Amino acid sequence: MLYFQLHKENSIPLYEQLYIGIKNAISKQQLAVGARLPSKRELADFFSISQTTVELAYAQLLAEGFIMSKPRVGYFVEEIDELPFIVPVNAEINSMAEEKPTYAIDFSSAQIDENSFPFTIWRKYAKDVLDTPFKHLLQTGERQGELALRSEIANYLHQSRGIKCTPEQIVIGSGTEQLLPMILKLFDDHAKLALENPGYSPIHRDQLKQRAIPVPIDTDGLIIEELQKTAANLVYVTPSHQFPTGAVLSANRRTQLLKWAAQAPNRYIIEDDYDSEFRYTGKPIPALQGLDQNERVIYLSTFTKSLMPSLRVAFFVLPPALLKRYQTDFTYYSATVPRFEQHILARFMKDGHFSKHLNRMRKIYRKKHDKLIEIFSSQFPEVHISGDAAGTHLLISVPHHQNEQQLHDIALKQGIHIAPLSNYTLTANPYRERVFLLGFGNIPLTLLESYIQQLMACWGIHKKK
Ligand SMILES: Cc1ncc(COP(=O)(O)O)c(C=O)c1O
Q1: How far is the CA of 351 from the centre of ligand 1 (A)?
Q2: Nearest protein CA to atom 12 of ligand 1, as residue
Q3: Structure confidence by residue, pLDDT tens digits, 299-353
Q4: Both 244 and 313 in a single domain?
Q5: Which residues approach ligand 1 with their CB closer than 6 A?
Q6: Neighbouring-strand partners of residue 234
Q7: DSSP per residue over 213-244, as a string?
Q8: Cα separation of 271 and 165, whole Å?
Q9: Are 156 and 242 in a shared domain?
Q10: Across the chain, how many H-helices and E-strands are there?
Q11: Domain containing 300: what range?
Q12: Count of alpha carbons within 13 Å of 131, Cβ hemisphere only?
């Protein structure tokens, strides 16, 4: 029988309440297969509702196959196959989904200063763009990215990095992680990629590891003699600020590297210039691309450090021969960055806010950088600092009997996150010292000293008297 009630004051229409009630009774087998349902009139009288309401509910149950109608006889419960029991996928996913960990102190090198972002200006451009005059942006955009943004990037690269390129040579995508595999697709499967070791980790983790040839680096950056010994025809480098060691590729090695590329057909250098905007010592290092006479450099950069990692905007500049290849092979590829975001950024750049922001951030990061050096040299002189000429992280070498992993774990127990250099090596860690990447991007200047003291205290390194 039907053991449910209808609630006239409920916002769910009566016919729907009736439909749900009967459907539940069938699913729970309170109504047996083949059982005859009350006639429309009987049910209308029983619930004191109109026959039309019953008719609507029965029509829905009929349409969904819960009941069948025998003309002039009545309505009967249909046989419904039991649904196989499936572990709710969402429940599984939810239990697996790890929340991004939060730390009391985070020395991650991936963080930018979140207190200095020009929200007011960004919001203004976002508001401008998200309006009907820009309704055409709802349609698909240009495959290589919006021309407005590519033009701004080309201007910026020319002025600040000495890069010769036209907007046509630029391809925009949602991050270095996404663009690097795309660059590799321009070459056949036999292409051999040399990577700096230690180096940028997202490339190491995936299947590229099998194709990748690790090449050691020293304080002058990639060791070109070692590269020459390999069968590589592609090399990925971070010449202006090697990630993670911070080494700057020396002038001599730059020339050697460009020569290496020119020595054989189809040899290319992928130059990742991810954080050259923030330089603290010496003159800005010109990009390799600007020095190259043979069109063998693929320049790659990102707005992750200069603006924000969550924007997911990066780009590469292709030399003419590869541009042709790209334009024939990638006709099916659409830009992966939303058009609205691209136009917000283009306007932000066009009106000079990007340069202003960089100037401001340079000062902010420089203060933090100088403060860090001062803290270590005056309080913890036995900790050696390196790779501090640019960027938002530096390396610290810690004299200790415990190994890097143990030191990492000790810090983590105190809620302090700091990454060991060995996280970024392709081969067994070649370093004898305990080396860590100390990111300072998002640590407030006023807290730097106490955070360093806490880190040192948990490792048992005492402050100099
Ligand atoms: C060497 C290097 N390249 C690029 C990036 C930025 O990557 P993405 O553009 O995917 O955010 C980083 C980020 O830390 C990096 O260390």
Answers
A1: 26
A2: 274
A3: 999 999 999 999 999 999 999 999 999 999 988 889 999 999 999 999 999 999 9
A4: yes
A5: 110, 175-177, 200, 238, 243, 272, 274, 302, 304, 309, 314
A6: 193, 268
A7: EEEEEETTEE-HHHHHTS--SEEEE-TTS-TT
A8: 15
A9: yes
A10: 17, 16
A11: 135-353
A12: 9
